[in-house]
Design goal:
Blueprint lengths: L1 E5 L2 E5 L10 E3 L3 H10 L2 E2 L24 H13 L11 E3 L2 E3 L9 H6 L23 E3 L23 E5 L5 E5 L12 E4 L3 E3 L1 H10 L9 E4 L4 E5 L3 E2 L6 E2 L5 E8 L6 E7 L8 E4 L46
The structure holds S-adenosylmethionine.
Length: 330
């Protein structure tokens, strides 16, 4: 990890240079930092399988699928290693440069098929939260399309580009804060980061959870889609997403996103739910993480001093529900 001094505070880039912008861990108390590095070993910009295989190098094995017919179909597909059938042909030559027509809308194959939910062509421009598809997931253009970073419909594939610092949170432990160098607000709908970690099957997640010491908290975010269930565990391997705390009145939300219409993995992407001011802590509602559905439901286990074995919520929101969300299915 790279350390540096910035305006009197000691910082280290948690991403070790792998993100386009550094993720400073602003020195907090020694105990929090020791607690963090006791369990957190690897920063990744995108999720991996438990054996370390990057998601982008694999298709979901049948073990992640919900019922037997889907499992059999997936086993067949995985054996055949199908190509992504949605390679876009929108790219056009324009004098000396290549132009991805996702920026114009209809002439892009991916946009015609799945839509473009980003409100303009520049990468900084936000997700149009009012125009989301009625059912998950949101589908972006495929990473295999040749238009690469020029494509305006591939926002969540571009890693972290927003200044985020990790420091002590009023709700306890560490938290992620919007930390720009000036007074610029973050527009509603801005993409912040993926929620990246190890992608576990339900039985792997159950085993992990039963072996997790009580004092380590819960980091597992569950994506429950009609065809498959994935549990994202960023406790040991993950990205900046693992530092976002729960709030009953959050300023961010999670959308399930697919990269291309092929047989790929769903990703969990964190967007600003409203305008965020400099210095605000970034939070999402663990119980209803997505604005579009109840597909995501991270779990929290019996914890300190809660009634009925529930963990007390310390989000401090006016409409705080009192306890952390709890999912009994794992
Ligand atoms: C995804 S982690 C968030 C980062 C964590 N605070 C840390 O220091 O690594 C989730 C854990 O943070 C704690 N947490 C998050 N939001 C909380 C809240 N509103 N009240 C109490 N604890 C919270 C819980 O222990 C939970 O298991």
């Amino acid at each position: 990890m790279v350390s540096r001094h910035v305006s009197g505070r000691h910082e280290a880039d948690l991403s070790s240079g792998t993100e386009p912008v550094p993720i400073p861990l602003v020195e907090t108390d020694r105990q929090s930092i020791e607690d963090l590095f006791r369990v957190f070993h690897n920063y990744v910009t995108d999720s991996v399988l438990p054996d370390g295989t990057p998601l982008s190098n694999s298709v979901p094995p049948y073990t992640y699928f919900n019922d037997d017919r889907q499992r059999q179909q997936q086993q067949q597909d995985s054996d055949d290693q199908p190509d992504d059938p949605y390679i876009c042909t929108c790219i056009e030559s324009s004098d000396s440069s290549w132009l991805c027509t996702a920026q114009d809308g209809d002439s892009c194959d991916c946009v015609a098929q799945f839509g473009n939910f980003y409100s303009a062509a520049q990468h900084e421009t936000p997700l149009n939260l009012k125009a989301l598809p009625p059912s998950l997931p949101l589908v972006e253009c495929s990473p295999s399309c040749p238009c690469a970073e020029r494509c305006s419909n591939r926002r969540t594939q571009l890693c972290v580009r927003i200044p985020i610092a990790i420091r002590l949170s009023p709700s306890g432990g560490l938290g992620a804060f919007y930390d720009p160098p000036n007074e610029t607000s973050l527009p509603s709908g801005t993409f912040l980061s993926l929620y990246a970690g190890e992608y576990l099957t339900t039985s792997q997640a159950r085993t992990r959870w039963s072996e997790t010491p009580r004092d380590q908290g819960n980091y597992t975010l569950s994506l429950r889609l009609p065809e498959m269930t994935v549990h994202i565990d960023p406790r040991h391997v993950g990205n900046v997403g693992r530092f976002l705390n729960h709030s009953c009145q959050p300023n961010c939300l999670i959308e399930v996103v697919r990269w291309g219409g092929g047989p790929g993995w769903p990703r969990a992407a964190i967007f600003a739910k409203r305008q965020v001011e400099p210095g605000e802590e970034l939070t999402f509602d663990y119980a209803n993480a997505s604005g579009a559905s109840q597909a995501i439901w991270p779990r929290e286990k019996a914890g300190e001093s809660g009634s009925e074995g529930r963990t007390r919520c310390r989000c401090g929101a006016k409409q705080c529900r009192g306890f952390m969300p709890f999912d009994e299915t794992l």
